[in-house]
Write a structure and sequence with these properties.
alpha/beta; Rossmann fold; 7-stranded parallel sheet; 3-stranded mixed sheet; binds nicotinamide-adenine-dinucleotide; binds 2'deoxy-thymidine-5'-diphospho-alpha-D-glucose
């Protein structure tokens, strides 16, 4: 059985990727390495925990000795690396946590992979999952392509940019076979309610204010998480070595328009009078260094690998809202404890 390591598989996107790989590829043994930060949650993947081709390992990618011993024990032929600190607002208050996990953690994985294969990389692959935020901010026009110059503005995006550069450098210097993808904003089930869509769904359910940063005229390109997992599967198996692919939703929304749409659907779902939730919108202090607009040109992955999103935004949003409404216990569990401290610091 081929041993594949997926990092960050208890998080939002990682859990969808782990599930897909475990179910679709019985010929792989999937090892899910996750330290279980506040964002990691084994409930996200409890449905596959007893599968024979699946093993969960609790561990920290920042711990080089641990990572080295894990690779030497299992000789992973493929790595799909998602583990990261992922929230821009947290990177503003604690940048070093992002340097540690996103830069040092990625370096530890690259070094361990390089050490076990000693230059004999035939049939091996290191897949680094990154973000469109490394490209910085767009004005009103244009799209990010794979050749757009890196121009990160937040500690989060700077740490991801740094890790991307190291992955490429290891490809050039040591001949390490890598693929890299830069994806736009994901949404869907299991999204931690610190990010815009799940935070606002949770606040609407609880009749709490909806804190829109600045004037709300910031634009993001939204992709349903399962479509991202499909793209990751495709790139891992069919992507060209040493290539980068942009992944996006072909789906730009200004925050304020998205929030109004969310309010309308939530009113319907909750049986509230239309116009109830929109009254919860509260404009608050802007995020420092807030990127105005992200939008992806995903034509390379579309034309070379035949990938495109399978659901419309309306379909994806409805699936997402339905998931949160029928998983109140999940929502309750992740919003008790430390979540309240984070929320008070961030918003009050
Ligand atoms: P997430 O915050 O939901 O999950 C991150 C996971 O990594 C968690 O399970 C956490 O416990 C784990 N982790 C964190 N530090 C670790 C460490 N030191 N060692 C081991 N595990 C650790 O993140 P996400 O939104 O699922 O993002 C996954 C990846 O995709 C990240 O690399 C992120 O940069 C990238 N990405 C995210 C989006 C998005 O919209 N969410 C878009 C593009 C790219
Ligand atoms: O573009 C990909 C990136 O998308 C990923 O790499 C990141 O991991 C992911 O967190 C996401 O980053 P954003 O900063 O775009 O996502 P977030 O959900 O935090 O914010 C989306 C937009 O909504 C952004 O313009 C800020 C705004 N916002 C966010 C929050 C949490 C608000 O107006 N109010 C809020 O309370």
């Amino acid at each position: 059985m081929k041993k594949i390591l997926i990092t960050g598989g208890a998080g939002f996107i990682g859990s969808h990727v782990v599930r897909r790989f475990v179910k679709k590829y019985p010929q792989y043994h999937i090892f899910n390495l996750d330290v279980l930060t506040y964002a990691g949650n084994l409930e996200n993947i409890s449905d596959i925990e007893n599968e024979l081709n699946y093993t969960f390992i609790k561990g920290d990618i920042v711990d080089a000795a641990f990572v080295d011993s894990l690779f030497s024990e299992h000789q992973f032929e493929g790595v799909v690396h998602l583990a990261a600190e992922s929230h821009v607002d947290r990177s503003i208050t604690d940048p070093m946590a992002f340097v540690k996990t996103n830069v040092i953690g990625t370096m530890n994985l690259l070094n361990a992979f390089k050490t076990i294969w000693k230059g004999d990389f035939d049939g091996k692959r290191f897949y680094h999952i990154s973000t469109d935020e490394v490209y910085g901010s767009l004005g009103a026009e244009g799209l990010f392509t794979e050749t757009t110059a890196y121009d990160p503005n937040s500690p989060y995006s700077a740490s991801k940019a740094s890790s991307d550069h190291f992955v490429r450098a290891y490809g050039e210097t040591y001949g390490m076979p890598y693929v890299l993808t830069n994806c736009s904003n994901n949404y869907g089930p299991n999204h931690f309610p610190e990010k815009l869509i799940p935070l606002f769904i949770n606040n609407i359910i609880n009749n709490k204010p909806l804190p829109v940063y600045g004037d709300g005229n910031y634009t993001r390109d939204w992709l349903f998480v399962e479509d991202h997992a499909v793209a990751i599967d495709l790139v891992f198996h069919d992507g060209e070595n040493h290539e980068t692919y942009n992944i996006g939703g072909f789906n730009e929304w200004k925050n304020i328009d998205l929030v109004k749409l969310l309010c309308r659907i939530m009113d319907e779902k909750l049986g509230r009078v239309n116009g109830t939730s929109v009254k919860l919108i509260t404009y608050v202090k802007d995020r420092p260094g807030h990127d105005l607009r992200y939008a992806i040109d995903a034509s390379k992955i579309n034309t070379t690998l035949g990938w495109k999103p399978s659901v419309t935004f309306e379909q994806g949003l409805e699936k997402t809202i339905d998931w949160y409404l029928s998983n109140e216990e999940w929502l309750h569990n992740v919003t008790s404890g430390d979540y309240q401290n984070y929320y008070d610091k961030q918003y009050n």
